[in-house]
Amino acid sequence: MRENDHIANTNFCQAIVRKPARSLGSGITTAEFGVPDFEKAEWQFAMYVQALEDCGLTVTVLDPLEEFPDAHFVEDTAVVLPDAAILCRPGAASRRGEAEHMAPVLSRQRELTRINEPGTLDGGDVLLVGTHCLIGLSDRTNKEGATQLGSLLSDHGYTWQTVPVGAGLHFKSSVNHVGNGTLLVSEEFAGNQALARFDQIVVDPAEQYACNTLLLNDRLLLPSGFPDTRRKLETLGLPIFILSTSEFRKMDGGLTCLSLRF
User: Fold this and answer.
1) What is the pTM for the complete model shown?
2) What is the Cα–Cα distance from 125 to 98, expressed in whole angstroms?
3) Which of the 8 DSSP states describes residue 35?
4) Residue in 249, 243, 188 with CA at minimum distance from that of residue 31
5) Within the chain, how many helices (H) and strands (E) appear?
6) Mean pLDDT over residues 117-123, rounded?
């Protein structure tokens, strides 16, 4: 590790998830893998919840929202800190109601603040590494939303910086923390100056979807079907749980998207 020996891995106690709705195939997607199978998605979701529990988290499972087919991707609705929660304003107008449904759930857990118009912010663009936050500027998160989030983070003792996202739906489609200040990154981000302070494991372009790997309490959740990435991650010495996410991938979703963790 470079200058990040002080970065401890975050320990999570709780997670919030939402069951997929039967309407999930009507959600927003750029993927070309076909229509998701609802029963298979239900099974994959159940395995995901079990993995969260196996990592020591108490999981709150919310009911599906048929009118919001993307609502099971709860990560985009909020950023949760140890002492506060920030309600996002998703970049896709059709998803903003999801955040409003999440507001009363989070307000029982944390003091709640909001990203306000004209800012837009998706939680999938927000990567916390210790007390430093990388905020992706994407089609879903604009500069105003990132600046509002950065100001709120600064109030809670965090540093932050923005990172342009040239490809992929969200920043965390391409970059994730996999422990002790090491990032799992796509080739596109490997030379990015904003990430220069971190050690990096670069994912082969053929396995780019595996960049969306989730670190939970010194365990790694990795999507199935990416053996080269698994071999690279094994060098970290952490237990690796393999999970099938094929039906969520069809809707541009992955492992981080499916929960809020705190």
Assistant:
1) 0.96
2) 17
3) P
4) 249
5) 5, 15
6) 98
Q: Which domain holds residue 125?
A: 14-261
Tokens of 179: 């422990």
Q: Decide: 22 and 38 in contact? Cβ < 8 Å.
A: yes
Tell me, yes or no, whether 8 lies in a domain.
Answer: no
What is the tens place of the pLDDT at every residue in 60-105?
A: 999 999 999 999 999 999 999 999 999 999 999 999 999 999 999 9
Q: Which of 55, 88, 133, 257 is catalytic?
A: 257
The answer to whether position 9 is within a domain reads no
Tell me the per-residue pLDDT of 164-221, one tens digit each, with 9 for 90 and over.
Answer: 998 778 999 999 999 999 999 999 999 899 999 999 999 999 999 999 999 999 999 9
CATH number at 92 reads 3.75.10.10
Catalytic residue (choose from 72, 88, 170, 177): 170
Q: Do 136 and 162 meet the contact criterion of CB atoms below 8 Å apart?
A: yes
Our CA angle for 253, 1, 180, nearest 5°, is 45
* pLDDT tens string 1-39: 455 444 767 799 999 999 999 999 999 998 889 999 999
For residues 160 and 147, give the distance between their C-alpha atoms in angstroms, rounded to a whole number. Answer: 9
Query: Does the residue 34 lie in any domain?
Result: yes
170 given a catalytic annotation: yes
Grouping H, G, I as helix, E, B as strand and the rest as coil, residue 93 is: helix
CA distances from 224 to 62, 73, 213, 255 (A): 25, 19, 10, 11
CB-CB contact of 138 with 169 (8 Å): yes
Is 257 among the catalytic positions? yes
Domain count, the chain: 1
Is 24 within a domain? yes
